[in-house]
Amino acid sequence: MLNYQPQISFNANMQTDKSLQNYIEQHTEAEDEVLKELSRQTHLKVLRPRMLSEHIQGKILTMLSRMIKPKYILELGTYTGYSAICLAKGLQANGVLHTIDINDELEGFAAPFIKKAGFENQIVCHFGNALNLIQAFDVLFDLVFIDADKREYLAYYQLVFDKVASGGFIIADNIFWDGNILNSPEKQDEYTKGILEFNAFVHNDTRVENVIFPVRDGLMVLRKK
Q1: Buried b (16+ CB within 10 A) or exposed e, 185-204
Q2: Domain-located, residue 47
Q3: pTM (2 decimals)?
Q4: Quick one: DSSP state of residue 157?
């Protein structure tokens, strides 16, 4: 009897393959109109629009949130609100998503889209340093999404861990950091080192299960045991 094992290879930069990307988009539920307009306006009016969660990643975040059915979500790194809206779609009817961003200049940009999406009563925006603000929360989060300063990923993780419910999830974005995690040590900047430190720590943390999703710039999904 032949022992056949299918060979599956993942390319961390598969989004650069336009044919494959187009196929994925054509066979994924369409981006809703609010998110489509939010993406467009972000690219037109906001610096570093690449920071935006796009259509496919947004759908993945929504799907994960709907599977988890969280009552409380914490997001670190609001930017223009795209990922917050995606995650909020999985909230329980009385659920709340708290999102933190260092840049209060984006508050006026994100708020109208959050309202258009129907989440003005469920998404609460906070502005300031997440390392300080995290400590003020006195609820247990079912889901945490980390997408802020890459140098502080491990510090965020350590601060939120006790605020995550047993069986809860932590998702961290950009864990490939444009492939820089594969660079030789002398070519690694502080952001890359922060990501590498986080990736190594959580992979060896026996309190969680972890898996890397090779989507866009990499999603690390962790479940607290």
Answers
A1: eeebeebbbbbbebbeebee
A2: no
A3: 0.89
A4: H
